[in-house]
Every structure is written in C-alpha cells, then in structure tokens.
Specification:
Blueprint (H helix, E strand, L loop, with lengths): L16 E3 L18 H8 L3 E5 L2 E4 L1 H20 L3 E2 L5 E3 L3 H4 L1 H5 L4 E4 L5 E4 L4 H11 L8 E10 L14 E11 L8 H18 L4 E5 L9 E8 L5 E5 L6 E3 L25 E4 L6 H8 L7 E8 L5 E7 L6 H8 L3 E3 L2 H7 L17 E6 L6 E2 L4 E2 L3 E3 L5 E4 L3 H4 L1 H6 E4 L19 E15 L1 H6 L2 E3 L5 E3 L1 E8 H11 L1 E2 L2 E2 L10 E5 L7 H15 L4 E3 L6 H11 L3 E5 L1 H4 L3 E6 L8 E4 L3 H9 L2
Parallel strand pairs: 1-31, 4-8, 16-18, 18-23, 30-31, 30-32
Antiparallel strand pairs: 2-3, 5-7, 6-7, 8-9, 9-27, 10-11, 11-24, 12-13, 12-24, 14-22, 15-16, 15-17, 19-20, 21-22, 24-27, 25-26, 28-29, 32-33, 33-34
Length: 611
C-alpha cells in the first residue's frame, strides 16, 4: 500500500513549459449569469470551463491540466492498492438492468436513448452491471480472485435541475472501481480490499492537498451493506456532516446515529391532553410550513406522519416524527426489516391514508401496517416545561388538521401497536452516539468519493457464481469505489479561493509557477531571464507558464490571481537591478512577497514544494 506524501514535482519527469500567448486561457471579468457557486463562477472566469448545454461543459486547457493531475494521483494510488485499469463503453444495454432493476432505482436520472433498431440503451451513471458482465465472462475459478478493476471515464446522470457548475451536472468524469471476492473476512476478502481502498482514498485526497473528512454514509441507489463518503470540508458544501467532538465519529445526516435520548418521566405516550381536540380547516396548505403559518403553530409542535410501502407493496409502514425533523428512510427500512419506498398516493388513499393530512391514529385497525414513532414525537408530557405536550397533526381528511392532539386520548389504539425508535435524521445538538454527554456538531461538505460493500446484489442479479475452494458454487462478493474527478476539481475551488480568484494546492495546480516579465520583447533581458528560469524550473520538474502577453501589469497580476497558480515570479527593472526576481505565493497576504536572487529561485520553489 502506497502512503505517499511526496512532493508534487519529481525529478523523474521534466515539467511542462508553456507561453500564455500560445495556449487558450480566456479569462473574463464577469461570471456567467447562471453561475451561483464559487467554483462555477471562478472556473468560468479563469477560462477553465465553458458551458455547452445545461449541465454539460467543455474543459479548456487549464481545467484539463488540473483534471489530468488528479487522475494521475488516482491512478498511482489505485495501482498501488492492487487495481488494474480498463475502459468500458459509455453505453449500457438495457438488458443489463433487467436483473438489477437499477433503471427503476435511478428513475429519470438515467439518461435513456434508442438506436436505429429501437433497442433501449442508457448512458452509464456507474458501471456495476457492465463490469459484472466482464467478470462473468472471464472469471471461472476462485483462484482468479480477488480482483480489482477500475476505469476513469465520462458518466451521465440526467439531473432535472443542473446547477453549481461541475458540482451538480449531467456529464462528469469519474473514477469507478469494482472488487470481486469469494469471502468477506481474511486474506483476499472484501474487507481487506475495502480497507485498502479506504486508505488509497485517504492518500489520494491528501496528495491532492484537500481538507477532507471521512464519514459513514448510506449506500443509496447503488445498494450495499456498508459505505463511507469522503467529503471536502467547506462552508458552501451542500451536504451536512455531523461529528462527535469527543471521539471524531462522523456521518452524513442520512446515516448518523443519535445517542441515547432520555425517556419522558411519565413514559412514552402517557400524559393528559393540552386541551380539547380542535379540528381546523386548512385549505391550500400542502406542507408543514404552510400549516404552521396558517394555524400559528411552531414546527416542533407538529407531528409529521409519512407513509411508506415495502418495495413489493405487501406491507405498509407509517413513520411519525416531529414537524421540524425529517424522516430517515434508511432508519425506517432498518426498523421495519424490509426495503421501503414512499407510498403511492392513490394506493395509500385506497388503504385509508389521506396523504398530506395523515395522523398517527390512521395506522390503527389496518392489517399489515407497522407504526414507527420517533422518540421525540412519542411524548405527551413536556418534562422541561412541566406541562402537557401541545401537538397538532393531520385530521385524516383533506384540508383539515387537529390541535391539542394527545396520544393516550386520541390515538390509544395506535399507541398500543407503535414501535418507539429512531426514525429521523440526526441534527446538530443531538446526543452523540459514541460519547455520553457529548453533542453532535454540524459542518458542511462536498462529497468527492464514496466506497461501498456491495455484497452479492449484482452477482445474484446477473447469475455470477463460481466454485469456491470447497467445490461449492457461490455468488461472487463485490465492492464498489467511486471518485468524482471533475467534482474533486470543483470542490477544491469551493474549499480554496478568495475574492481575487482560485488558490490551487500545488499538487494539482495547472501550473506550479507563473513567470510574469514586465517587458515581453524577445530581446529584452526580462524575457531572457524568464526563459532561462523557466528552463531551469522545468528541468527540476515544475510546470511553468510564462505570461508573455503585451498587457498592462495590472491585467497580468489580476489574471495570475484569478487562475490561481501557486508561485508567482515577477521580473521587472527594479528586481533585475539586484539580480533578483519578485517571489510571491498565491496564498500570501496582499503585499507580501520579496526579492529572491535569480540563482536561488529554483531552490526557493523546491522549498515551497517540499522537494
């Protein structure tokens, strides 16, 4: 296993040397009108990406250089972890999904088209089925396992509302890897490969210069028994990470456990009503916020009741949480012991559930219905305030809600069959599940990597079974490991920028050094020194960009800040008079920097690179 923390430059390769005037870097003052996120604005303004269609972008030379550097680090660590690279088609035949039903799981996110023979085809969002088909046709013996295959390739997800540039787009670049095993534990098992991938991902994101967290996660439409997400830490992130400050435990909101919550003193569901039950006409109030505003009730005093069906439709599950909480489908699934989906409204109404106005009492007296009540919603007496708990809920008929709902008075039969458990998303301030007395804290992040223990989901669906060492025919066990390469680039910009532009970490910067001569005539000493230094730096492994444009110094300096090259060397008359150049880091404060002797420039750059 590689544990590289090496310099971003290496003497085994000569660095690239380019002139600004001979490449394409179309910087602009203004971002596109639809750009909202920092990465979308700055990658566009820096001439790195250009919109082709909604959620589809050109990668211009600067961005492409960053992507290739990220890919090189990914390949290096994947190879060191035992992976073998291949390349699979973008097209996935529809028949590959017949067993796995992932076309149903992805729904409209799956980009579908038809060929001239009217055969359904899909643009792959990931390639579990395709790689399983490869292994199915190539692996006949347990002696060929374990096996780890990976690719770096373009993927498609037909997002309804692409936004934030490369963070939520339709076409993107991804590294996806898949492992195959005959057993879970021990040498050659899934757990060994999973741990190797976990460490490889830590190495990859560390080498890319990212500030990141590893969190427990839900598997989503890919499926699987265990998974971890790798999240770039930044305030503009769209995902919430919950952490235990005492132990370092971290998970996303969908996966995070909640520590022990004290039961009410009178017990769950026990306590007198807060008042006479009152039915309120609430027309045109489709959501909790609308109802709260109309009835002048706070969200923590609402009961939110969500109806689920088992995937095969034979079982119903009703989950109740407080109005300011969100039902967690994964926790509902685990508590119910069956895979669930949100109930079909028409089928739910036929069963007696008035969707949008359901109350907990609707679960009583119905066959095949399981009632799950979150601990914070199963309270009739408010211990903190020393008085009955005030609840409002649906009235089980269209456009009506109830005030002063009480479990023991108004839903006694439902309470008898209810299971009190954790069925909601965790929030900041909830008790830590790992340290008594500690509270969870929240931070924001952007998912850039995800690893899964798939088990036999895909091999079972596609009939991939071989003889093991005991001559027993068994389904092959799989793992899945993805990195959003283009998303990693965008997340890095979200993490590292200022008002002037991007601040690339040295390892993945498009160029390590930008040299800005004040006079760009070919026979000037400015250009001679720039060319000499560029040659020396390139020979030392640095990628160098010479800004040879005939532009004002202010324009060049602003563009240098915008494109984010880590080391800036400025050559002017004042510095040359001292046989020096002005040396400044992109991360330095305004006005910081100083002169460095020309003979010492390469050494100064090496020091920055840790070489």
């Amino acid at each position: 296993m590689s544990t590289k923390t090496a310099s971003p430059i290496t003497n085994s390769r000569r660095g690239d040397l380019h002139f600004w005037s001979r490449t394409l870097i179309p910087t602009t003052k203004d971002a596109p009108g639809d750009a909202e996120s920092p990465s979308h604005k700055l990658l566009s303004r820096a001439g790195g990406i250009r919109r082709v269609a909604a959620g589809v972008y050109d990668y211009l030379p600067l961005a492409w250089r960053v992507l290739k550097k990220i890919e090189a680090i990914v390949r290096d660590e994947m190879d060191a972890a035992g992976g073998s690279e291949l390349f699979m088609p973008v097209i996935v035949p529809h028949e590959f999904y017949e067993g796995t039903k992932r076309d149903e799981a992805y729904g409209p996110l799956l980009f579908t088209l038809r060929d001239r023979k009217d055969q359904a085809l899909h643009l792959g969002p990931t390639h579990e089925e395709t790689v399983t088909d490869i292994a199915l046709g190539s692996v006949q013996s347990y002696k060929q396992l374990p096996l780890i295959l990976y690719q770096v390739q373009t993927k498609f997800r037909d997002e309804a509302r692409p936004r934030a540039g490369l963070l939520r787009c339709r076409e993107f670049i991804m590294k996806d890897a898949y492992s195959f095993h005959m057993h879970i534990e021990g040498k050659g098992g899934l757990n060994e490969a999973y741990d190797a991938m976990y460490q490889a991902y830590v190495n990859i994101f560390t080498r890319c210069g990212l500030d990141f967290s590893v969190v427990e996660a839900e598997s989503g439409p890919i499926g699987g028994s265990a998974s971890h997400e790798f999240m770039v830490n930044c305030e503009s992130g769209e995902d919430t990470i919950l952490k235990c400050p005492a132990t370092g435990y971290a998970a996303n909101a969908e996966k995070c456990e909640i520590g022990e919550r004290a039961a009410p003193g009178k017990g769950y569901f026990a306590g007198d009503p807060s008042g006479a039950l009152e039915e309120v006409h609430t027309p045109g109030c489709p959501g909790i916020e609308d109802v709260c505003k109309f009835m002048k009730v706070k969200a923590p005093n609402m009961l939110k009741t969500v109806v689920f069906q088992s995937e095969e439709g034979a079982k119903w599950v009703v989950a109740v949480v407080r109005g300011d909480h969100d039902v967690n489908e994964g926790k509902v699934r685990d508590a119910a012991g069956v895979k669930v989906k949100l109930a079909d409204p028409a089928q739910a109404r036929a069963k007696g559930f008035e969707i949008g106005f359901v109350s907990p009492r609707s679960a009583a007296g119905k066959a095949d219905v399981l009632l799950l009540v979150d601990k914070d919603a199963a309270i009739s007496f408010d211990d903190a305030k020393g008085k009955p708990m005030f609840w409002a809920t649906g009235a089980d008929k269209k456009d009506y809600h109830l005030k002063h709902f009480n479990w023991s008075r108004d839903a006694a039969e439902a309470a008898k069959i209810a299971k009190v458990t954790d069925v909601r998303n965790a929030m900041a301030g909830d008790p830590s599940p790992r340290s008594k007395g500690a509270a969870l804290v929240a931070q924001r992040g952007i998912e850039v990597g995800h690893i899964f223990k798939l088990g036999t989901k895909y091999s079972d669906a596609m009939g991939f079974a071989i003889m093991d060492e005991t001559q027993q025919r068994k389904s092959v066990i799989m793992g899945c490991y993805g990195i959003g390469v283009s998303r990693t680039m965008a997340a890095c910009v979200e993490m590292s920028h200022d008002d002037d532009g991007i601040k690339w970490p040295l390892p993945i910067a498009p160029y390590h050094v930008i040299i800005t001569p004040m006079k760009v005539e070919a026979d000037s000493r400015h250009m001679q020194v720039a060319s000499d230094l560029a040659g020396q730096l390139s020979a030392a492994g640095f990628d160098v960009l010479i800004d040879d444009r005939d532009e004002r110094p202010g324009v060049k300096f602003k563009d240098a800040d915008l494109i984010g090259v880590p080391i800036r060397l400025t050559i002017g008359d004042k510095s040359l008079a001292e046989e020096s150049v002005e040396f400044k880091l992109r991360t330095a404060a305004a006005g910081a920097g100083g002169f460095v002797k020309i003979a010492e420039v390469v050494g100064a750059c090496r020091k920055v690179a840790g070489a």
